[in-house]
Every structure is written in C-alpha cells, then in structure tokens.
UniProtKB/TrEMBL annotation:
Alphabetical GO biological process terms: lipid A biosynthetic process
GO MF entries: metal ion binding; UDP-2,3-diacylglucosamine hydrolase activity
Protein name, per record: Metallophosphoesterase
Organism: Enterococcus saigonensis
Polar residues biased stretches: 324-335
Lineage start: Bacteria, Bacillati, Bacillota, Bacilli, Lactobacillales
Annotated Gene3D superfamilies: 3.60.21.10
Sequence segments annotated as region (Disordered): 302-347
C-alpha cells in the first residue's frame, strides 16, 4: 500500500511540475559570437562582463504556440527580459499559434498588444512555422505580426547597415506548410544570417557556407525529456537543440521555444530566449549618420501551377536584378532526414554539460 501511495505521490509531483512549474521557468541564454568564427562563448552567467560597446545583440524567440490554454500573458516574462536586455534586433522563428481552427478570436487584440511591447531599434523580423499554416492560419499570423511591427520574410531577405554593423537576413518558408526557396546569393554584408523554422531544412541548402549564423526552432527539445525518452520531431531529427557546426563557417542554433503543443507540459526542457552578441573585429561605416533600416531585397512571385513555375528575383545593393531558377531540391515534408547519407557533423556541445564543466570557455 505504501508503495502504491509513493508512486501516486511521485506521479502527482511530476504532473504539477510539468504542467504548472517548468512551463513558467523562462531561461535566458547568451552567446558571444566573434566574426572571425574562431570562438563562441556561452556567457549566460556573466554576459555583462563580456559584451562591449559596438556589439550588436539579437534576441531569438521561437515556438510560442498560443492557443485556448496558452494565453498571450505568457509573453510577460519575455517582455521583461527584452526590456532588461534592450536587444538591437528581435527575430522570431515561427509557430506563433498552435492551430488557427481553434484559436480564440477574442484573444487577437491582446496578442497584438503584447507583441507590440517587444521593442528593438533595428527591427523585428519573423518567419512562419508549420503550425502557422494549419487550416489557413498563415494569413492571420502574417497580419498579426504586421500589426505588431514585425517584418515577415517568406523566401525573402532584408539588408541593413549602420555605424556598428552591416547585416543581411534571409528568411525561408516552412518546409511542411509552405514552399521554401533556397536560391539566395551572398551579399557584401559583414554578417549573413538565415532564419528557418525547421532546422533540418539546412541540408537542402547548397550554399550554406555563406551564412555566419542560422537560427531555427521547431524541435521544442523534445518538450518532455526523460532519461530514456527523447521525442524527436519530423524536421528536427538531426538537429534537436543547442549549437551545431554544419560547415566550418556556419553556426546553427536551435531554440527549444517557449510554448507547447499536443499537451500543455514541459519536463527537462524549460522555455528559453536566446541572445546572440555579435562582435566585429573592426568598425565599419565610421562616418555613417542615420538610422539602421532594413530594406527588402527579394520578392518571390508565386504563380498558379506547380512549384517549378515559381520565380525569384534577387536585388542586391548596387546591383541589377538577377533572375534565378529553382534547383531540384526535395520539399517532401514526409522525407526522413535520417535516410540521408551520414556525415561527420556533430553537435558542438551539450550545453547543459558545458555549463557545469566548461563555463565561459571556448566551444568553437
């Protein structure tokens, strides 16, 4: 009898923690990234000691999954974190809502109000996730993000520069719900950043080496992580969480997100917001006098018919439009990344282990 009561008590404690406590434990991660690619530091416990004037900070949020049981008030801790850190740019990598069919319409104005409170002087940029496309929800999500001041990139890119940095940010469409395009040329910007909701999408990008930083989400880190149970999501089976080095010049960061899907619980994977502190070895545009503004450089025109009829035009700074034709890249959402030939790409570091043993040490 005592054994049964003990098991019930353990299950009850587990449920209370997974459903009510851990989903509210927002964690902040801070990475200092050098332009020369020679090192990345996890400075989460002492970020104020490592950052310096001239660095540009990007706040990365992903997988909010607002729904009937996950209300916009969950953004309050993120808003406080953003207000404290005052990042230069905010990026959101998809899944704003869980399912448009069941979205409580009366919460829309409240959601827009909360998203507007996320402030960033250089801009707020987003891409769509697979849940945003459920039951035609992509149109609603785009409008909400637009009202909240976000620029949503669907196979598009933006370029901007100021006295501290020049940056090109590419946002590709979701693999499951949308029609992703991977034809983007390198620009003259110092930093090239790619936003893709599903991290496994990067394996379809032939020119991945041109990007300094790839930001993704989708995986939730498994959402429920037990010693012998780790649930991997289609689209994030190869890259599940933390940092990776898919090429010698490219860092991939997979955000485990804030919200929940299927069941409103988390265990072993608390919600997170990640800050990337980009550090250049030299200053550019020293005589620049003005504000940092992103301008869209790519327009994707979707014609009626098959994906082969889709046409992209890339307009780089001070260049003429360059027509591009789609490559034969598979976009089958049912494709299993594990069926592809195995390579030697490994996770850079298990962050939990790293934080215990190698705090503030070089990981690349």
């Amino acid at each position: 009898m005592q054994f049964i009561l003990g098991v019930i008590a353990i299950l009850l404690a587990f449920s209370v923690y997974a459903f009510f406590i851990e989903p509210s434990r927002l964690k902040q991660r801070h990475y200092l990234i050098r332009k020369n690619k020679q090192r990345v530091l996890d400075i989460s416990d002492a970020y104020d000691m490592f950052t310096q004037e001239g660095d540009v900070t990007i706040a990365h949020i992903s997988d909010l999954h607002f729904s009937r049981w996950s209300k916009p008030r969950r953004l309050n801790k993120i808003i406080r974190s953003i207000m404290e850190m005052q990042p230069d740019i905010i990026v959101f990598t998809g899944d704003l809502i869980d399912d448009y069919k069941h979205w409580p319409k009366k919460q829309t104005d409240r959601l827009i109000e909360k998203l507007k409170r996320l402030k960033a002087p250089m801009g707020k940029i987003a891409v769509l996730g697979n849940h945003d496309y459920k039951h035609g929800g992509q149109y609603f999500v785009k409008e909400v993000l637009k009202e909240a001041g976000f620029t949503t990139l669907v196979n598009e890119e933006v370029f901007g520069s100021d006295a501290k940095i020049s940056m090109n940010i590419v946002g590709i469409d979701d693999l499951s719900g949308g029609s992703p395009s991977y034809n983007f040329e390198s620009t003259l910007a110092e930093w090239h950043i790619l936003l893709a909701h599903q991290p496994d999408q990067i394996e379809a990008i032939h020119s991945l080496d041109q990007y300094d930083l790839v930001l993704s989400g989708h995986s939730h880190g498994g959402q429920i992580r037990l010693p012998y149970l780790y649930i991997k999501t289609q689209g994030a089976k190869r890259y599940t969480d933390s940092l990776y080095l898919p090429t010698k010049n490219t860092i991939l960061s997979v955000n485990t997100g804030v919200g929940m899907t299927m069941i409103p619980a988390r265990f072993g994977v608390p919600p997170e917001i990640i800050y990337y502190h980009l550090s250049n070895k030299r200053q550019i545009f020293e005589n620049f006098d003005g504000n940092f503004n992103f301008e869209k450089q790519i327009t994707v025109e979707k014609n009626e018919g098959t994906p082969e009829e889709t046409r992209n035009e890339y307009i780089a700074p001070d260049r003429k439009a360059v027509p591009q034709t789609p490559t034969d890249i598979p976009t089958n959402p049912n494709a299993n990344p594990e069926d592809k030939p195995e390579d030697k790409t490994d996770k850079i570091v298990d962050i939990n282990l790293f934080r215990r043993r190698y705090k503030n040490k070089k990981i690349i």
